[in-house]
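For homework, think about our next protein:
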Amino acid sequence: MKTTLAEMQIFIAVIETGTLSRAAYELDLTVSAVSRALRRLEEKLDTVLVRRSTRRLESTEEGRTFLEYAKQIIASVEDAEEHVTMKRRHPSGKIRIIASTSLVLHVITPVLHRYQKCYPEIEIEIISNDNVYDLLEHRSDVAVCIGKLKDSGLHAKILGLCQMMFVASPRYIAEHGMPHRVDALKSHRLIGYKQNSLMNDWPLDTGEEHYYKIQPSIVASNSEIIRQLAIHSSGIACLPEPYVKNDITKGDLVNLNIKEKLRVREPLNAVYYKNIVLPSRTSSFVEFLAESLVLPSE
């Protein structure tokens, strides 16, 4: 084998962080050491792996191919070391999890203490990101997200299905009335998303389309802000059931039974890279989350 594991690790860090300086910081090396290792790797392979630009380094087609194999090799070695060195039959090491603020608060956090009891040797790092689930950028092992997967380079394990619900506070309903039909929404204050306009297409049968494109009275950048706005009587919101289930039980929100409401359930996914040997710490979290969530599977 021409290349070493150290060179592979440096190359992966360079691509994941986007700059030599950030890679050097992550690996506790000098920038010159990282630069030399990258140049040495390209010389061994007799190809250009990285394009240099003023702001960020990007992989070439050959670099992306090598990255896929390098990550598989490193993951396999780490998994082998984990299995050989652990004294008990329990996964260990650090797992980095990325999810939206709402998923962290309402799906992951409530069950995490039980996961920690089952796997006390695993160190957990949670990253909240409400817009883009970029595993490379955040150097994460697994992402948890709602919706269909678009990136073909990733694999999704469906943990369950989330019913979309229309909700408002009891005070809002008392002041503005209960909307029973989709046409009645035109006279109500509706809460929508600022960045993700597709989330403003509500699952309501309008006769011509199986969605109702709302004109929000107020918009917010993430689901947790929208939930809080609904609780504090700013309008009607459409949110996944796990986000509002406890609020409905406590009476802080009311589930609106609009006649044209469609039974739309979005998949809740655990997302990770395709064609990679999952470390046991990652697979343990994915399997635990699937077993712990009380969500329908079909």
